[in-house]
Design brief:
Blueprint lengths: L2 H13 L4 H19 L9 H8 L6 H20 L26 H10 L3 H13 L3 H5 L6 E2 L4 E4 L2 E3 L2 E3 L8 E4 L5 H8 L20 H11 L12 H12 L5 H8 L5 H11 L14
Antiparallel strand pairs: 1-2, 2-5, 3-4
Length: 290
């Protein structure tokens, strides 16, 4: 059997498991990055040395290469299940380490400058929600009015929107309730009362946004050409919310994990560890412990 045969099986199985946005990323990798290198090959003839040579073709981050390897491993696993091969050649690939990029949150001064500089009303509303809830961009444009409970002061995150449509949030724990901070409340209330559409954010044509790339491409990126602020991508609003909440002692890692939609606090500790006790803990040496 050919490599393409098992790549096709792999994709068909993944299509039933993954969200559309994730599946199309997998499909693009298989069709454009992997199959061209192993086209018309019997899968049993592909050796580990060829996989190592294939990896040398890509000048990409280790994180991306690990994603490629994971897909390759899955394709060969399908052949193992059919007893076309006895072992997975991916097991002989060297282990790649992911070098984590340092989080560079915006300072309070920068946040206020960005918010004051945002002239488009919808963009400003988007930024207020992003900076004061830590919600993902797709979750923000997916908000409906029914998700806002002003009495309980919570936002119920139930869905996300992206270029491949509307779906549930990124993970199961992504379905959650997010507190509405007092500073966000009036902005959210004004936006809520400004129109009759079921979605919270709508375009000038009275239709909901399909994804958050409109805010990124049309407003966020051009805005930094006018501001004397180091550019960071729009997703950094989420990092900024998390670091400000932790460094000021406004919440615990466990509670922040729930607000951000993580299954547990492990991700919070891994990504934001240096902000958790960043000068906030004064150790008392004069302790009679027992």
């Amino acid at each position: 059997m050919t490599f393409e045969h098992y790549a096709d099986i792999y994709l068909k199985l993944k299509k039933s498991e993954l969200k559309p946005s994730t599946y199309y990323r997998y499909e693009g990798t298989v069709l454009n990055k992997i199959i061209p290198f192993f086209i018309n090959r019997e899968i049993s003839t592909i050796k580990a040395s060829e996989l190592r040579m294939w990896l040398l073709n890509w000048n990409m981050s280790n994180k991306t290469l690990l994603h490629y390897i994971s897909i390759l491993r899955g394709i060969f696993e399908e052949a193992i299940y059919d007893e076309e091969i006895s072992q997975n050649p991916c097991k002989y690939l060297r282990k790649l380490k992911i070098i984590k990029k340092e989080i560079l949150p915006f300072t309070p001064k920068e946040v206020n400058l960005i918010l004051s500089h945002a002239k488009n009303k919808n963009f400003k509303s988007y930024l207020y929600i992003a900076f004061y809830t830590g919600m993902r961009g797709g979750e923000i444009v997916g908000l409906k009015k029914q998700d806002i409970d002003f009495d309980k002061k919570i936002i119920k995150v139930k869905r996300s929107k992206g270029r491949y449509g509307e779906s549930s949030p990124k993970t199961q724990s992504g379905v959650r309730s997010v507190p509405i901070l007092d500073i966000l409340y009036p902005h959210l209330k004004e936006l809520y009362n400004s129109h009759d559409n079921e979605y919270l954010l709508i375009t000038q044509y009275k239709k909901p946004y399909n994804h958050n790339e409109t805010f990124s491409n049309r407003h966020w990126i051009p805005m930094f050409q006018e501001l004397d602020i180091k550019y960071r991508r729009l997703y950094n609003t989420r990092h900024t919310f998390a670091t400000m909440m932790l460094s000021n002692g406004f919440t615990t890692p466990q509670n922040l994990a729930q607000i951000l939609g993580h299954a547990n606090s492990q991700m919070v500790h891994q990504v934001y560890s240096k902000y958790i006790n960043d000068g906030k803990f004064d150790f008392n040496f004069n302790i009679n412990l027992y």
